Each structure stands twice: as C-alpha cells, then as structure tokens.
Amino acid sequence: MFSQLEMIVDLEFIIENSQTIIDMVSFPHQVSDASKKVFEEDISNMEQRFIGTFDQLNNYLSK
Fold first, then answer.
1. Using CA atoms, how far apart are residues 21 and 36, in angstroms rounded to an integer?
2. Whole-angstrom distance between the N-terminal and C-terminal Cα of the chain?
3. How many CA atoms lie within 13 A of 60 on its CB side?
4. What's the mean pLDDT in 19-28?
5. How many CA atoms lie within 13 A of 14 on its CB side?
6. Beta-ladder partners of 41
7. pLDDT tens digits, residue range 1-21?
C-alpha cells in the first residue's frame, strides 16, 4: 500500500546550442520523517522513471 507524498517540483527549461535541457529538482513537502526516508531511498528509481518519461517525450517530438 502506498501513502501519499506531497512534493515540490521545480522544472527549468534551458535552451543551449539549439538543444533543450531540462533541469528538474524535487523534494518532499510537509511529510513525516518516515515518508521523507522513503523518498530518499527511492530517489534513484524516481530519476529513472523521469528519464524514461522524458525520453518518450523526446521520441514523440522528434517525429
């Protein structure tokens, strides 16, 4: 069973050498110590899921 986790996410889109770079920073907000620990332990999995999502977006926009 999953508990809810409120996060603050900051996305910055940067144009550099005709390429778009996405800088994403996220952190838990108003959470218990236990929820914060889960976030910290799962950060690498979240990063991989976001990489996959942005790769799919890139493939779609490249068509």
1. 28
2. 38
3. 6
4. 90
5. 8
6. none
7. 456 778 899 999 999 999 889
Spatial distance between the Cα atoms of 34 and 23, rounded to a whole number of angstroms: 27
Q: Determine the length of the chain.
A: 63
For residue 28, give the amino acid letter: P
Percent of the chain with pLDDT over 90: 41
Q: Give the residue extent of every domain in the chain.
A: 7-62
Q: How far is CA 16 from CA 2, 13, 20, 25, in A?
A: 39, 10, 6, 19
**DSSP one-letter string for 39-53:** HHHHHHHHHHHHHHH
Q: How far apart are CA 57 and CA 38, in angstroms?
A: 27
DSSP state of 30: S
Q: Mapping DSSP to helix (H, G, I), strand (E, B) and coil, where does residue 14 land?
A: strand
